[in-house]
Amino acid sequence: MLPPLATHPLGTLVADGCGTALGLVMACMLVLGAQALLHRAWPARCVLLRGLMLALMLPGLALALLWPGLAGHGGGMGSVAQGALVAPAALWPLLRVLDAVPPGLSRTARGLDAGRLALLRLVWLPLLAGPVAGVGAFCAVMTVLCAMAAVALQ
Description:
Radius of gyration: 18 Å
């Protein structure tokens, strides 16, 4: 007997993967926006946000993989929900790095006549290259796993 994943076309797997990636990107943008807003006004709340992401990391990953079986496959919205559940695990390393950046770093670089491109190339890429690469690889693997779980449990 073939496993259910072997009988489904590749298009279904790709569609579920795209839905999962969309949910992941939307949730990440929401959390990074909240980080940016909180960091300007209340730095202590950024620590709370990072702690919340850490607390939701493992339950979110487990729920992302079990979601299609628990809630029934809800089509595209089920895949988007899976991606949103992966977001805490994806964002925690980035939030740690962003909290460790000195607050006046960009202002100092701009004061030394660094343009936007120079600021990106000389300040932000060296700081964020490792965490972004690791998070990108993790997100790609989790997107594939979530899409496979969604297709297998259809």
